[in-house]
Design a protein that fits this description.
Layout lengths: L5 H54 L2 H10 L1
Length: about 70
Amino acid sequence: MERIDIQAIERQARAMRSAEIQRLQGLFAERASLYAVLMGHSLLNGLVAVGELIRPLLTWNPQDKRKHSSAC
């Protein structure tokens, strides 16, 4: 009967566990970076939309109206 090398089995199990943890960390990092990019794009699109909404409020100039009405 062959002798079971418990230490070798434990080393192999630790190596497999370490490889799996590294794989999961890489997967998590990849997905987190994708979510960060998507959130950044969404935030940028939201800021552009808000900017377009408030642009008329910030560009209004009452002097332009008087200048145009006196020219007529």
